[in-house]
Amino acid sequence: MSAVLNARNLEMLQRMPIFGAIRSDSLEFLLARTRAREVPQGRYFFRQGESGQSMYVLESGRVSVRRRWGTQEMVLRHFGGGDCFGEMALMDLAARSASVMAETDCRAIEISTSDLAALCDRDPEQFALIQMNMGREVCRRLRVTDELLFKATVGAKLPAVDSGFVAL
Is residue 98 within 8 Å of 65, Cβ to Cβ? Predict the structure, then answer.
């Protein structure tokens, strides 16, 4: 069993919306191809503007999602264990829209485009379901962001940073 393929990680993925309704054998196949990524506190998983070839499922630790505005880097959101980030780059193949920095020492599962392509070759139906789930998650985050933008436009009080979502 690889460092990523274990019962705890399988259960964690099964609880996540992106992997909802995905069969255990497909998740095991995917996890067997992924890599564990450890990022120390203060280091970045990726930076805004970089090419994106992977998404991450945070096993442990806490990260902040940050976006540059001129010379400043502003915190948009925090994620903790069991959250995922970076999936938008797998869908639109565009540059990263924000940076993600480890606020504490972090361990994550890195799922690359080639990992998903291997699943597509093995089981196109399960691959398509993951893609649909990713689309739903990105849309959910977009709806929350749209609501925040609307509130900011009309001058309403905005919630704290951790209440908003961003798609990466």
Answer: yes
DSSP code at position 162: G
Query: Taking the CA atoms of the chain, what radius of gyration do you get in angstroms?
Result: 16
* Burial class of 27 by CB neighbour count within 10 A (0 to 12, 13 to 18, 19+): buried
Give the burial class of 58: count Cβ atoms within 10 A of its Cβ; 0-12 exposed, 13-18 middle, 19 or more buried.
buried
Q: Looking at the domain 8-153, which fold is it?
A: Jelly Rolls (2.60.120)
Query: Which residue bears the tokens 């120390």?
Result: 40
pTM of the prediction? 0.86
Task: Answer for the pair 27, 126: CB distance below 8 angstroms, yes or no.
Answer: no
Which amino acid does the sequence have at 33? R
Separation of alpha carbons 65 and 42, rounded Å: 12
- CA 19/CA 131 separation, integer angstroms: 9
Regions of the chain short of the pLDDT cut 50: 1, 163-168
